[in-house]
Structure formats: C-alpha cells, structure tokens
Amino acid sequence: MVEHTVKAFDDEIGALRGLIAEMGGLAEVAVASSVDALVKHDHDKAAAVIAGDKRIDALEVEVDRLAVRIIALRAPMADDLRDVIAALKISGLLERIGDYAKNIAKRVGEVEGRMKIEPLTLIPAMAEIAQSMVRDVLNAYAARDVNLAVEVVVRDEKVDQFHNSIFRNLVSHMMENPATISSASQLLFVARNIERIGDHATNVAELVYYAATGEYHWDRDLPRPPEHMG
Description:
With 230 residues, the chain is an all-alpha fold. It has helices at residues 2-40, 43-74, 78-106, 122-143, 146-176, 181-213.
C-alpha cells in the first residue's frame, strides 16, 4: 500500500511537471509566432496565436486543480511541497507570457504593413532573447538546474537594454515622422510586452531556484549560485 501511494504521488508530480512543460512550450511558440506575424504582417498567423492562447489558459486551470488535489490528498513536505508550490506559481507566469504574446499578435493589424520603421528591425532580436529565456528556464525547471536559472536572470539585462534602445529610437522616429505616430506607438507597446516576457521568465527562474534550494533569492552580484549548490 505504501509503495502504491508513493507511486501514485510520483505519477501526480510527473503529470504536474508535464503540464508545465506543455504550457511553456506553447508560450514559447506563441512569442516567436506573434513577433513573426508582426514583422511579416501575417494576419492569419496572428489569429492563430490569439486562438491558441485558450489552450494555455486551460492548462493553467488543470495545473491549479492538480496542485490543489496533491496538497489536499498527499500533504507533501519539504522538496515535494516546494515542487508543487513552484508549479502552481510558474503556471500563472506562463499564462501571462501567453497573454503578452496574444497582445503582440493583436497589434499586427494596427501597424501599417508597408511602413518602414528602423526600430522594427530591433524587435525580432529582442524577442529572440526573451524567447530563449523562456526556453532555457523551462529546461532549468525540468532539470532543476539552478545554474541555468541564474543565467536566465542575468540575460534579462539584455532584454532591458533592447527595450530602452527601441523606446528611444521610436520616440525619435515619431518626432521626425508625425504620420507614423499611430503605428510607432503600437510598436512601443510591443517592445513593452516583450520586456515583460523577459521579466516573467526571470520570475520563473527564481521559482526554479526556490524549488531546488528552498531559498527565494541569491546574491545577484554572484555569477553563479552559492558554492554549496554546485
């Protein structure tokens, strides 16, 4: 009976982690697809991103239900409890990442297709870093890799630098080309959404660190976690 209970618990934890992996994979693809739709002015791809967000939302509900079930029936402790709590919080962050991708997709129709705005060329590069953060933080979660989680946090500074550069360029562009203010302002919102995706990937990384160590924060001046964590 004890072995059966342990196996059932392990299966539920595995299912929880599987749901997080699926959510993360969909969110990562949504980020890439939304920016690609923006650059190519692809309304069909944008519509697919918007429609696909419903699946991410549904997965968050599944994570919530399973996490509550595990806590109520299994009364997990220590590492196991941290795993469940981390999954519960991570699912909310991934749902928000999906929402930001959806918001980008919704702006595809608001940016003039033939308009050439130099800062638009910076947005895919910024998005690529944010997308890589989402991908790597999911790998860190799957492997409980605290070093990779810290690398994701460090990488967020590059996203912030891109955001600041794009903001300055777009403001200058609008001042020089008043006719483009409407489209350029939409790109400001896009850049902000991508910046928030990077922030949320950072928050996921901190939860990965918490699940593995029991601590919420590390010394940000260190390039790696404390030595005892390897």
